[in-house]
Design a protein that fits this description.
alpha/beta, 3 domains, binds guanosine-5'-monophosphate, 5-stranded antiparallel sheet, elongated, 331 residues
Length: 331
């Protein structure tokens, strides 16, 4: 069995402040005193706790108490009083499983209490004040959030993420010649037309010159609406859908990020403000697919916008999951 800390102290492998020692016991200062005088009187023989005592140990235990009495006298603790306790097993809180007796003195020790200590007055005050602070912080955040035009939702909405299948895409990949030649029409929203950005020529190229379509892609004569359908797509599908020339392209990032650079012909509807843009959004014609992108990854902002569009029967809506982060690296 592994040695206890007290065996190692007795063997002088670990230092301690020894108050008394003879051939049967050692008395040391407790490393974490619970009172001004806190001494442990430890029989040297390995005994787990009181429950491990045998008849022949009666004399040893008597000796322990006499040592404790003498130590209490030495510390001048007799008149004011002192306490001798020993803990046995878990409910008593025994932590070192080598029999020992605590001698406590030097201040009023309170009533013997079988209950675990309750929070003291100062702990209770601290908890109360801490609670008040948390409530004040939450209230402040709520007020700030309610007046902030870019409100942060209290509960993060989990969107359903469905990948577009090949057949989902095929319906919209090919358009009639006329549609393919037409330039994408801006969604009728009041977004100021931004200055051209470094990626605009690349995107314009993608719009004017469709990427090679697979032989299976047949020209489609009319747009088939799929209201409320939201699908996620990767870069290639995104480029191919743009190559049809018939789409609404929405950048769902913040106006600041949009101003720094965006995909050509994209209009900006910031995902955090999609609800307040409803009056603008519902003016957009519903005769083409909607493509949305944001920073990529979880595409939360794109999904916010898609959610609003969905409510008004727009669809299909394709979310480009690579977003601006990926687009930048590829164009
Ligand atoms: P128990 O919780 O088992 O009744 O008491 C064990 C006591 O041993 C505790 O009061 C604890 O502070 C004390 N103690 C634990 N490790 C050491 C140590 O390494 N040196 C000394 N002097 N006391 C210790």
């Amino acid at each position: 069995m592994q040695q206890t800390i007290f065996e190692r102290i007795i063997a002088r492998e670990i230092p301690s402040t020894i108050e008394f020692e003879d051939d049967r016991v050692i008395a040391i200062r407790d490393i974490a005193p619970s009172a001004p005088v806190h001494v442990l009187i430890i029989p040297k023989r390995v005994i787990r706790n009181v429950d491990d005592l045998a008849e022949q140990d009666a004399e040893l235990i008597g000796h322990v108490f006499l040592v404790a009495r003498d130590l209490a006298r030495k510390y001048g603790a007799v008149d004011n009083g002192y306490r001798i306790v020993t803990n046995c097993n878990e409910h008593a809180g025994q932590t070192v499983f080598h029999l020992h007796f605590h001698l406590l003195a030097g201040e009023p020790l309170g009533r013997m209490n079988s209950r675990p200590p309750r929070p003291s007055g100062s702990t209770r005050t601290m908890l109360f004040e801490g609670g008040l602070l948390v409530i004040a912080a939450i209230a402040l955040a709520a007020v700030f959030n309610s007046i902030n035009p870019r409100q942060i939702p209290w509960v993060k909405k989990e969107y359903e993420r469905t990948q577009a299948s090949q057949s989902d895409l095929e319906k919209y990949l090919a358009v009639s010649d006329t549609a393919a030649q037409s330039k994408p029409i801006d969604v009728a929203v009041n977004t100021p037309t931004p200055e051209p950005t470094k990626t605009e020529p690349a995107a314009a190229k993608a719009t004017a010159a469709p990427v090679a379509s697979p032989a299976s892609e047949k020209p489609m004569n009319s747009f088939v609406a799929d209201p409320g359908k939201v699908l996620e797509i990767g870069h290639d599908a995104f480029v191919r859908l743009m190559s049809t020339g018939s789409f609404h392209l929405i950048d769902a990032r913040t106006p600041e990020k949009y101003a720094e650079g965006h995909i050509a012909s994209a209009i900006n509807i910031y995902g955090g403000e999609a609800q307040s843009r409803i009056p603008d959004i519902i003016q957009a014609p519903r005769d083409r697919v909607i493509l949305i992108y944001c920073d990529g990854g979880e595409c939360e902002l794109s999904h916010h916008v898609a959610d609003v569009l969905k409510q008004f029967g727009y669809g299909p809506i394709f979310i480009y999951t690579g977003g601006w982060a990926e687009w930048k690296t590829k164009h």
